[in-house]
From TrEMBL:
Positions annotated to bind substrate: 134-138, 167, 180, 276
Domain Gcp-like as annotated: residue spans: 25-311
Record family assignment: Belongs to the KAE1 / TsaD family.
EC number, UniProt record: 2.3.1.234
Protein name, UniProt field: tRNA N6-adenosine threonylcarbamoyltransferase
Pfam family, one: TsaD
Cofactor note: Binds 1 Fe(2+) ion per subunit.
Binding site for Fe cation: 111, 115, 304
Subcellular location: Cytoplasm
GO cellular component: cytoplasm
Length: 345
């Protein structure tokens, strides 16, 4: 089955074709990062308009790259939520219109299920069951995954997501949006011994996270250095390093706890922050100590992309799931624990 996947939940227009027999056939992406950068974050109205402009040409491009015509598609999957409602509606209505024209099934899928299963597109995909750490711009969650649609939320952020914290720290340091990669780059030259930031919520049991206090701590440290006239480039790097170390350490501690609590030895890390090199190194060290394995998506599938949507859609479409005709879905808020396996059981 050849499935066209469409992702438009936020600031990336992603389109891919996944073939359930042959794997990923093609994958294209247009990022709106440069367009939103001058505003310091995503402007929803601009995002929707740009998806409208880009989506059809990208669908043609992915077909060309795969050497297929649209008549060779068997189904369409699109991101139904969570995300920006206007942006979601562009993908949802295009998917439904195209599916109606081609007379093929169409299915709205959950964006975070896409992130969660993105590592399945790699050469050595993780087997079920596993613990997943979902760390993206809008989510920080630990999930016990037994199979497709069998998810148990173990813990999540009570305030900011890890990616959001990276983005806000970047802003305080005068770095461009999106902040994660910029903070990580600046942290490279930082001295890890100069400043130490707190590891929120690690001093008590539990698998929830909180990153908003770390944000305040970062701002306080920057203001203090500024007042001392000491906020030079090397001090900014030290702040970035202290911030990154605190986030990485906090995530690693909770992952270790989640593996202990579930007795599992397989960890999947996905979402934009899973691209972070220091986080990967830290989790690999932890896993090696415990005889556990860690899986990630390749770099370009850590952040939003069409491939993960095509993959998840394919699994569910193959099991017979699809939207009712004309029932396009655009669900801005949609907790993942409401998901079910395709057979409903
Ligand atoms: P969600 O998936 O929760 O709706 P989103 O789609 O905006 O949110 P993603 O596209 O998965 O999130 O990831 C973007 C986030 O990942 C941003 O917050 C960005 O700063 C962060 N990020 C990307 N690369 C890195 C990195 N190397 N280190 C840390 N953070 C990173
Ligand atoms: Mg994004
Ligand atoms: Fe995302």
């Amino acid at each position: 089955m050849r499935v066209l996947g469409i992702e438009t939940s936020c600031d990336e227009t992603g389109v891919a074709i996944y073939d359930t027999e042959r794997g990923l056939a093609a994958d294209v992406l247009h990022s709106q990062i440069a367009m939103h950068a001058e505003y310091g974050g995503v402007v929803p109205e601009l995002a929707s308009r740009d998806h409208t402009r880009r989506l059809l040409p990208l669908i043609q491009r992915v077909l060309d790259e795969a050497g297929l015509t649209r008549h060779q598609l068997d189904a369409i999957a699109y991101t139904a939520g969570p995300g920006l409602v206007g942006a979601l509606m562009v993908g949802a209505s295009t998917a439904h219109g195209l599916a109606r024209a081609l007379d093929i099934p169409v299915l709205g899928v959950h964006h975070m299920e896409g992130h969660l299963l993105a590592p399945m597109l790699e050469d050595a995909p993780p087997a079920f069951p596993f613990v997943a750490l979902l760390v993206s711009g809008g989510h920080t969650q630990l999930v016990e995954v037994e199979g497709l649609g069998r998810y148990r939320l173990l813990g999540e952020s009570v305030d900011d997501a890890a990616g959001e914290a990276f983005d806000k720290a970047a802003k305080m340091l005068g770095l461009d949006y999106p902040g994660g990669p910029a903070v990580a780059r600046l942290a490279e030259s930082g001295n890890p011994a100069r400043l130490r930031f707190p590891r929120p919520m690690t001093d008590r049991p539990g698998l929830d996270f909180s990153f908003s206090g770390l944000k305040t701590h970062t701002l306080t440290a920057i203001r203090r250095l500024e007042a001392e006239g000491a906020l030079d480039e090397s001090a900014r790097a030290d702040v970035a390093r202290a911030f990154e170390d605190a986030v990485v350490d906090t995530l690693a501690i909770k992952c270790r706890r989640a593996l202990e609590a579930t007795g599992l030895r397989r960890l999947v890390v996905a979402g934009g922050v899973s691209a972070n090199r220091r986080l990967r190194e830290r989790l690999e060290r932890e896993a090696a100590k415990r005889g556990a394995e860690v899986h990630y998506p390749r770099g370009r599938f850590c952040t939003d992309n069409g491939a993960m949507i095509a993959y998840v859609g394919a699994q569910r479409l193959l099991a017979g799931e699809h939207d009712a005709p004309g029932q396009m879905q655009a669900v801005p808020r949609w907790p993942m624990d409401g998901l079910q396996p395709p057979d409903g059981g």
